[in-house]
Amino acid sequence: MLVVQKYGGTSVADAARIRNVARRVAEYARKDRVVVVVSAMGKTTDGLIGLSREITPEPEPREMDMLLATGEQVTIALLAMALHGLGLKARSFTGQQAGMRTNSAHTKARITRIDPDRLREALDGGEVAVVAGFQGLSDRDEVTTLGRGGSDLTAVALAAALKADVCEIFTDVDGVYTADPNIVPDARKLDRITYDEMLEMASLGAKVLQSRSVEFAKKYVVPVHVRSTFKLDPGTLVTKEESEMEDVVVTAVTHDRNQAKISILRVPDRPGIAAQVFGAVGEQNIVVDMIVQNISRDGYTDMSFTVPRSEHAHAVAALQDIGRAVGAQGVVHDERVAKVSIVGVGMRSHAGVAARMFQTLARERINIQMISTSEIAVSCVVEDKYTELAVRSLHDAFALGREGAHP
Ligand code: ADP
Ligand code: ASP
Ligand code: MG
After folding, report:
1. What is the spatial distance between Cα 19 and Cα 268, in angstroms, rounded to a whole number?
2. 374-391 burial by CB neighbour count: b if 16+ within 10 A, else e?
């Protein structure tokens, strides 16, 4: 059997935890071939980002990648040493050495090709291959990173390239829950979840898996098992849909606080304006999320949309110019918003789900600022301070809690 395992930042936060991971890996390595992907230790990546901001508010993306890629390199060397200490053969590999090739989109590079020859060699020689997550090498031979949470993607992509039997994502929770267990105490661990639901959850803010890693897993049908680094119990299997999964209408509630709302006021309502506005934002490589356009009055309209909070200043700057160019009245923004969503494949075949969500929020007197829907999700933008209340009341309203938790 060939297993790819990934251990996240909290799981390798200090020397004792790295030794703990080494012990877990050693148990598998006695019977299976193992590739281990690791993240940077603890909050290292946040720390490095903070450090760069002390030098300059707008670092060059190439240098940012050079900086961020150092985090994972520390962990691979230390974990290989810990494995040696347990008498195992092990070797560490940077993203480049592991054959992860990407495009040149620094800080959010996409994988273009994987040549894992050196990993195969190591495995054939009876070694554990320890790979730095989150990093690769571009077509111009530059160091790149895959976006926040990108070690998940490294693991899934390697599992696909090596045709591994399973990709295990070890983390600080026991699996995928019906809501973030850190804010909903009676959230329930799911035994299984479909790729589609997991993909919605991940793109709607459940950071337990990076969304691109789920996209990749779905495309190459990689079985993903999300489980705890600190316990032996099985976690959650992310798999293809099975028919009984549709019986459950809502599977989970997710939230995303990394949101900001931008409105461009009184723009002329004529063809081509939206293309110009969103073209300007897209050129800055900023992903626009929900979009709402008001009904036109006297030939003018307001347009609102959300962007990642961390990029909103950038987006506003880009829009101010375009706003002037198209003759808009102005651009306003609000960073105190969050997105709350319900997700479930059963929504395809059940009516009235969105209405129940709106009623629940109304009962808590939470105003809905924007709404968007997909086939298997409904999302509402609300004031940030209501995030936890909204998530908990929706979790209750759709009876997602542990059995017996509700009288
Ligand atoms: P790692 O460092 O191992 O990659 P992350 O912090 O990226 O871990 O992801 C795990 C975190 O995801 C958990 O600590 C939890 O707070 C959060 N999370 C959000 N939504 C969910 C959910 N539905 N189920 C499980 N965890 C969730
Ligand atoms: N260290 C990177 C991050 O914090 C990648 C990862 O942990 O997955 O985003
Ligand atoms: Mg993560």
Report:
1. 62
2. eebbbbbbbebebbeebb
> Does ligand 2 come within 6 angstroms of the Cβ of 150?
yes
Does the C-beta of 180 come closer than 6 Å to ligand 1? yes
Q: How far is the CA of 210 from the centre of ligand 1 (A)?
A: 10
**What pLDDT score was predicted for residue 406?**
43
Which range, of 228-232, 258-262, 321-325, 402-406, averages the lowest pLDDT?
A: 402-406
Assess whether the C-beta atom of 252 lies below 6 angstroms from ligand 1.
yes
Rounded distance between C-alpha atoms, residue 305 and residue 300, angstroms: 17
Summarize pLDDT for 110-164 with one digit per residue, the tens: 999 999 999 999 999 999 999 999 999 999 999 999 999 999 999 999 999 999 9
Q: How far is the CA of 326 from the centre of ligand 1 (A)?
A: 42
- Whether ligand 1 lies within 6 angstroms of the CB of 228 is answered as no
pTM of the model as a whole: 0.93
Q: Which atom of ligand 2 is nearest to the CA of 71?
A: 1
Q: Who's near 372: CB < 8 A, 6+ residues apart?
A: 289, 290, 378, 379
